[in-house]
Every structure is written in C-alpha cells, then in structure tokens.
Automatic annotation (TrEMBL):
It comes from Bradyrhizobium forestalis. The keyword Hydrolase applies. Keywords: Hydrolase. The keyword Mitochondrion does not apply. One of its GO terms (molecular function) is fatty acyl-CoA hydrolase activity. It comes from the Bacteria. It holds the Pfam family 4HBT_2. This is Acyl-CoA thioesterase. InterPro entries: 4-hydroxybenzoyl-CoA_TE, HotDog_dom_sf.
Length: 139
C-alpha cells in the first residue's frame, strides 16, 4: 500500500482551554492528509478535475479513536494510506503518532464524484481510475 507521512506541529489555535487539541482539528488535519496523499501519489486536485473529470472526493463517513492527547508545540506524525478501494468509494486510515506511540487512529470513507452526464447540474459517483488503484494498492 502507498503510504504518506507528514509531520505536523500543534498550533495554539488547535488547542482548547485545557491546552489539548480540540478534537475537530484532527479531522481537518485528516482532510489535509488525504489531499496530500493524492498529491504525493501524483494525482493533484487539478489532475482530478482536468484528467479524470472529477469534482471532488467528499467524505461520507468519519470517525476516530483517541489514545494520547497532544498539546501546543507538540510534533505529531500523521501516516495516511488507502486501506481499500471499491468501484467509487474508498477507505482511508490515518495513524497519528506522538513520538513512537500511536496517539490516534482516524478513519474516513470517501467517494470519487463527478458531474452526472445526464444532468450536469447534479453530481454522481465516478469509478476509480485503474492507474490510481494501481498506485494506491501497489498492484
């Protein structure tokens, strides 16, 4: 599986009054990590639009398990990979490490979406292109 790792420093604005990361901020970090995964794999947002006719990869389900809190100034590593791919939907997993310890597991279900050819004002799921499947799964 194709994996991307990125280092993130926790900022003042990420934290609540108890000086721990306010949990919705992690979901924003996960969204950024998914976008970065596509970019690093060679599929920029511009490519998704121009080459594949997609308008986005919206999230349809998300959840997380929190084990270790982070505070202002901490550095975390977010490791992101696509766990499985179906026709148009896919599962993303984010492992967040604080040092060597697993701090958070994040999960997303996303769908490739394009314009409905029968009605361009509507959106419709789009099949996962074979070259993207090959890149993300290593097959």
């Amino acid at each position: 599986m194709f994996v991307n790792r990125r280092e993130v420093q926790i900022q003042w604005g990420d934290c609540d009054p108890a000086n721990i990361v306010y949990y919705p901020r992690y979901f924003a970090m996960f969204d950024d990590s998914t976008s970065t995964l596509f970019e690093v794999a060679g599929f920029s947002k511009q490519d998704l639009v121009r080459k594949y006719g997609l308008v986005g990869i919206p999230m349809v389900d998300t959840r997380a398990k929190f084990y270790i809190p982070s505070t202002y100034g901490d550095w975390i590593t977010i490791e992101t990979r696509i766990e499985s791919i179906k026709r148009s939907s896919f599962e993303v997993k984010h492992n967040v490490y604080k040092g060597e310890a697993l701090a958070i597991e994040g999960f997303e279900t996303r769908v490739l979406v394009g314009r409905d050819p029968d009605n361009p004002d509507k959106l419709k799921s789009a099949p996962f292109p074979a070259e993207m499947v090959a890149k993300f799964t290593g097959s």
